[in-house]
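Feature request, filed as a ticket because there's no other form

It would be nice if the structure record came with a short human-readable summary line next to the tokens. Right now we just get the raw output. Example of a typical job, pasted below so the devs can see what we mean:
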Amino acid sequence: MRRRRSTIGRAAAAAVHDSAAVVVGRARVDRRTKALVKRLTPGDIAVIDHLDLDRVAAETLVAAGPCAVVNASASLSGAYPNVGPLLVAAAGIPLLDGVGATVLERLEDGEIVSLVGDDLLVGGEVLATGQRQTLASLEAAYEEAERNVGPALEKFVENTVAFIEKEAHLFTRGRLAVPDLGLDLRGRHVLIVVRGHDYR
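Raw output as currently delivered:
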């Protein structure tokens, strides 16, 4: 246990230090994180658009070994406690957040880019500006999200009830129109799953 704390402590120190470090690498750009990690190599800079970066996506990014992650959206919006961005920071990977969606259109895949403070630069020119996160800033945002989880849950329940009231006829009258899946599902059970952090 002591060894693990020591490792995390070193990673935390690296993450804090990296908030001021200049990072240079080849940009790999994709709106879909799970598609990007398939061609991401160590030393690349991952450029994504992933609101509330989830744990599974963060783990795959860390495993790919980029020298930095640039997110067009907020990696931790505060809508709910989300550990994904903390995993990136704890791995010592600089994270530049909220640079805006236009960066994915303006940036060419494979282009050499650099992170200088809160700025993303191409050829010495500022292409986009966001927030350079640290483990400390993300932990503060996570704690704030934990405090907000009650109201967020209440809003979710309200939205669910409103949806049921609006769409109840789909469930109570006749049958739902199912798109053609190319399979005959009559008389067969169907299991719908969503991958979790321990899906491996």
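Something like this underneath would help us a lot:
Residues 110 and 193 are 35 Å apart (CA to CA).
The longest strand covers residues 23-29.
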